Amino acid sequence: MSTALFLHVIVHQVVTHTAIVTVRQDWAAGQVDGEGTTQVGTIRIDTRTMTVPTLEVDLGDGSAWRGFLAMVKLGGDHILTGTDHLLILLILLLPAPLAVTGRRWHGLVGARSALGRIGRITLAFTAGHSVALAVTALGRLDIPGWPVEAFIAMSILIGAIHAIRPLFPGKEALVTGVFGLGHGMAFSFVLAEMHLSTGQLATSLLGFNLGIELVQLLLVCLALPSLLVLARLRVQTALRLTGAVLTGTAAVGWLADRLGLPNPVARAADGAGSHTTLLLAALTVTALAATAWTGGRRLSGDLKPLGA
C-alpha cells in the first residue's frame, strides 16, 4: 500500500485526522542531507463533501546543477564530521618527514623526500577510496556495514602503531591505498541511503567525491607546514607518540563498538566530529605559526635543513 493511499484510508476512517506531508529529500532542489524537512501540504477530509481533495505537490524549480553542488557540500561535510576519516590520513602523514634507522623512527629525510611521501600517501588514499566508492555505488553492491567499519577502525589502529614504530617503511602509499578501499566503501553507504536514480547517482558520485577531495586537500595543505616544522623540534617524539596513543585509543574504542561492544571511548571519538570548526581553526593557526617560524629562522640564518 502506498503512503498516499494509506493516508486516504486513515482520513476516511478518522474524519478529524489531518496528515501533514513533508519532504525530507529533494535532490534537484539541493536538499540531500535529510536533516531538514519542507512541508508541502496536508491531507484532510472535506466535511462538506466527505471527500479527500487530491494533494498536488509542487517542489519548485530544480536542476542537476543544484543537486551536484549539494552533493559536493555533503561530501565535504562527511569528511569534516567523520573523525575516523580525518584520523587515518593525519596519522599516516605524521611520520612522513622521518627516517627509519634500525626499525625505529630516527632522524629526518630531505624536504623533497618528505613532500614526496606526503603526496604519495594522499594520492594513494584518494585513489583507493575513489575506486571503492565508484565500484560499490555504481554496482549497487549490498555490503554489510559492520565489517567495513571494523576494517576502518583496524586501519586507524595500524596507522597509530606505525607512527610509534615503523611497520611498513617505504610502503606507506601501498598500505594507504588498501586502507582507502575500506573508507570508500563506507562513503558509498551515504549514497545508498539516498536511493537515487541512475542519472542522479552518477552525478552525485562525482559531486560527493569532489567534495571529499577538496576538503581532504585543504586539510593536507593546512597540516603540511606543521608536519615539516614539527620534525625539526626536540619535542617531536613526545608529540608524535602522544598523537599516536590518542589515535590508537580511539581506534580500539571504535573497533570494540563495531564488534558489538559499545563503549564511552567510541562515543567520545565520534563526538569529536562535532568540533570540526575548532579543528580547522587549530590547523590554520598552527600552519601560520609554522610558516612564520620557518621564515624567521631562515632570515636569521640558523634554520637546520630538513634531513641534515
UniProtKB/TrEMBL annotation:
Superkingdom, natural source = Bacteria
Q: Which Pfam families match?
A: HupE_UreJ_2
Q: InterPro entries in the record, alphabetically?
A: Put_HupE_UreJ
Transmembrane segments annotated in the record for this chain: 79-100, 121-139, 145-164, 173-192, 212-231, 238-256, 276-296
For this UniProt record, the keywords arranged alphabetically read as follows: Membrane, Transmembrane, Transmembrane helix
Q: What is this protein called?
A: HupE/UreJ family protein
Q: Which organism is it from?
A: Streptomyces doebereineriae
